[in-house]
Design goal:
Keywords: Membrane, Transmembrane, Transmembrane helix. The protein is mainly alpha-helical and 117 residues long. The chain has four helices and two strands, in the order ααααββ. The radius of gyration is 48 Å and the shape is rod-shaped.
């Protein structure tokens, strides 16, 4: 035998030994519902729920802010309307109309206001 063949034979593992070592090794399949997988998935879901809750809270707060701003605008407009109604009622009296007419140079003829002379 040549030295090369001796090296090959020496390094070759017989097929029976290879087959027996393969049979002895059990390959563990990772199941879909392993404990680590369930913990990982549940932690991701909890994190996503917290993010969703924060987003919804932010949206609700923004809507409350808008509502309060509109209520303030309504209150301010109500005050302006009341002031205008009081001016209208003040100007609609006959004595007030006569006073404004005299101040603007209008003359009256038998309780009728005329423009010019």
């Amino acid at each position: 035998m040549s030295p090369l063949q001796r090296r090959i034979e020496h390094h070759e593992i017989p097929k029976q030994k290879v087959a027996s070592t393969l049979k002895k090794q059990k390959v563990k399949k990772k199941g879909l519902y392993s404990l680590q997988g369930l913990i990982g998935i549940s932690s991701v879901l909890v994190f996503m729920l917290l993010i969703g809750q924060l987003y919804l809270d932010a949206q609700i707060n923004e809507i409350h802010y808008r509502v309060e701003k509109k209520k303030l605008e309504i209150d301010q407009q109500t005050v302006v309307n009341e002031e205008l109604y009081s001016k209208i009622s003040e100007l609609s009296t006959y004595s007030r109309a006569m006073e404004v007419a005299k101040n603007n140079g209008l003359s009256t003829y038998e309780n009728t206001i005329t423009i010019g002379e």
